[in-house]
Amino acid sequence: MLIRNAGPDAWARQTGGEERVDRLGERCVRQREEHARRLIVEVPTGDFQDLRLWRRQVADLAVGLVEEYDRPVLVPMTLVNPGYVDEIFGALKDAGIDVHHFFLKVSREILAKRIDGRSFTPDNPEQDERVRRWCKDRIEPCMAAADTLPSDTVFLNGELTPQELAEQVLARVRAGGTSGA
Asked: 155: which residues sit within 8 A by CB, 6+ positions away?
């Protein structure tokens, strides 16, 4: 089983993901951004999601984690290109993995405030500002992605507390509220 948290707000996806991790017991969590940072190629578009190799590795890693450890994998990230959603979800479906897909809806204002309140690289203020600017540039594409998500995506209020989000996600997963890609 794979539980995918999406939405334009990394804070809500990650914090809520950590809360769900605590409640699920045995599970794996994979930050796809961390996977991308380890790539040593220049991304011409500036967006690592545009790298076909990255998308293949995401799907392969998720399949491998489920097969090797036989436990849920939590994936907090938004895919903004509908073709990439189809590509990755299709690979998971072909491998027989149930996907539970959730999207956290948050206002632009709250997103910008949360981004401004985060420190990405505390020892490098210039890099910190570049990352903050990149994150803010991603707000619109991530919010627009909500209109192109699979029909079984569950939309959640991203302004709820991590505990409230965890309760909603786990209740739906346990009830089979969304699965498939």
From this structure: 102, 103, 105, 146
Contact partners, residue 152, CB within 8 Å, separation at least 6: 101, 178, 179, 180
Q: Which structural domain, as residue segments, surrounds residue 21?
A: 2-175
Model confidence pLDDT, tens digit, residues 153-164: 999 998 898 899
Q: Is residue 180 part of a domain?
A: no
Other C-beta atoms closer than 10 Å to the C-beta of 123 total 7
- Could you list the beta-strand ranges (E) of 15-79: 28-29, 73-76
Report the run of H or E that residue 156 belongs to, with start and end: strand 154-157
The bridge status of strand 28-29 relative to strand 73-76 is: parallel
CATH number of the domain enclosing 17: 3.40.50.300
pLDDT digits (tens, 9 = 90+) for 103-116: 989 999 998 998 99
| Three-class SS state of 47 | coil
